[in-house]
Amino acid sequence: MLSDYYTLNTICEFICAVIALICLRKDKALAWRLMIVLMVATFVSETAGRYVFLHSASQNNHWVYNIFILFEIVITHIMFAHLFSRYTNFKPVLIIGVIILGLCYAYDMYNKGFFWYSNHTYTVMSVLFVLYSLIYYYLRFKDDQYVDLRYSPEFWWAAGILFFFFGATASNLFDEQLYAVMLYKHHLTYYIFRFLDILLYGFWSYSFICRKWLITTT
Q: In which band, very low, low, confident or very high, does the pLDDT at 139 lie, cut at 50, 70 and 90?
């Protein structure tokens, strides 16, 4: 049934993808336009993963997310390169980050295979994204140029990354303890990640709207 695909994840991702398409399709910056690709890939991956889970005998949909994580790594690094370009030449560090994640991905594929989720890659990626976000905020607050952070698309985009991946990393570290707590027929981790999803796509949607407003007014 079509209603089987209406989850909090897919609804948030679809709304964010639509907002990205409306706000960013004419953006002059490639990094921002690529956010449309990332959001569409996110929604398609989540829907495809749901379909495989519901209709596959093994219910193994890990391979879907192993494909998606490649989009996530590349496009997010391009976006951070765009954010950092205003303050410093951070591209060598980001390239090293991509290489490290590529090696992690190859390690996971070699040891687990394509049909098991590359969790080592995701863990390292989460830590790197949190570090990138913190470095961006450090550079942002050292900058003497005044920016109204309430309407700064870069600020809110990085906030989504920081909150989501910091929360995801902390939850994964205490996965066993959190998983053992049951609330209303779901493990506590279920609610934590739903909350993180709302934060991420809420912040990103707002950042896309701010970006569109800045382009329109300037």
A: very high
